[in-house]
From TrEMBL:
The keyword Methyltransferase applies. GO terms for biological process: methylation. Keywords: Methyltransferase, Transferase. Pfam families: Methyltransf_25 (PF13649). This is Class I SAM-dependent methyltransferase. GO terms for molecular function: methyltransferase activity. Residues 60-155 form the Methyltransferase domain. InterPro entries: Methyltransf_25, SAM-dependent_MTases_sf. It comes from the Bacteria.
Amino acid sequence: MFAPQGPTLRELAVQALSSVERGYDLLAPKFDRTPFRTPDAVLTPVSRALHELGPFDSGLDLCCGTGAGMGVLRQVCRERVTGVDISAGMLAAGRAREGEPAAAPRVEWVRADARALPFGPVFDLAVSFGAFGHFLPRERPELFAQVHSVLRPGGRFVFPIAAPARPGSWGYWTLLAFDAAMRVRNALWHPSFVMYYRTFRLADVRAELTRAGFDVELHALPELGRRPDGSPRCRLVVATRTR
């Protein structure tokens, strides 16, 4: 799962015993060589779907990390692309990977907490990839309110969400064990490291987005396959600011 140039077991252990911010600062130089980076197999179909929804003038990558999603935004935004993350180390790695900035769109990297975004309603599009497990369920309403506040009327908040693992499957037990281990870790060790895979449920998220002032649609991502019952393995949530 990890490239030979990726983090060692000791480095992962140190990261796991740190806070979220400090942990990602430590992991940043090798993050792109871990399975935690959103794979191109996910980014490519999302990019296709956004091309069909766009074009857009300005885009925000929420919890951008080293910038995997920034590449998607650069393909669909004409004027401005902004990445926001709480980890200075991840932002520095993203800037370094980007190299010389292109003429358009303008690219910005901003250190900020996603729960307190330092922008007005200036974006047409916001995306996020793989970051929602870092927010407890009680924090999501404020998170979604923040995204709503930085979108222009009619702006869209878009992110992929995978179908839950079938009860009793290998994936189900793996995620259950991970979340249980994380809860034990946070009960015994401080600072806490919030990362839970099973708390971001589509029905709950859809209701919370609606309450935040979004109109929510779901789009299948057929490139990512279907489950045995015919349902998509992954959907794209498209939440449009309606008020």
